[in-house]
Structure of Nucleoside triphosphate pyrophosphohydrolase:
Amino acid sequence: MSRRYSIDDLLTLMAVLRDPQQGCPWDVKQHWDTIVPHTLEEAYEVADAIERRAFDELPGELGDLLFQVVYYSQFGSEEGRFDFHDVVHTLTDKMLRRHPHVFPDGTLESRRQGVSAAEVETRQVHSRWEALKAEEREGRSGPQQGEAEAVVSVSALDDVPRTLPALSRAAKLSKRAARVGFDWPDTDGVLDKLEEELGEIREALSAGDRDHAATEVGDLLFATVNLARTLGVDPEACLRGTNQRFESRFRHMERSLDAQGTPLGRASLERMEEHWQQAKRAERAEPSDPTMD
């Protein structure tokens, strides 16, 4: 049996790749900012493999994502800031603090006694989790080294990453706001807001004000994200599903028109719509995959 590599082997590999004399020229010239786009891409590739249920691909994709963590840890080690072991320690320590209902003494060895996981009240656990995260945010908001002491307000919206995709960030922002009571009382309120925003878009277009219309489109999208939240679904996942269906139907339309000898650009809208509806009917006739529910 071939040797199974360990995390220490991976750390050694990264250190060699970054070695100025013996390493890879591409890896040697990388820095914090150049790796970020790769990190985002790898995270999406993990999500894509899971959505496609391509579990045979997942170890490789997860490895690519882990490699990003190892990369940043190497940067930190080279600059004397932190290393991979600090990352592991910080993560484990944080998870122990956030799970007192599992590790009552805050140690990895401690265990909850006499209560099953099913008996732990989910709402209480979630509330405690959010309270601990709020404490952590407050701790990070204090004056940095060398700064004068100052009273710094802590926002419920702190630490929502600005680099998130817009839909995901909108979902996180609205979720944070809802936790402190800034929310519609029910789904009907969100639907009313959607209609209101759509009406404002119509007004702006009627007035010839395209800039205002663009602003209102943003408001409409934000309201749509809130609707997804109230339904308990992820707006990014919803849109990815729509993208997939659109692509599938469009390709069906292309193939059908091509089979009839009609170039796509010369087909009438009515004929394109006919084949589009055929694709939709074919989708409904296909058995659903229970793993995708």
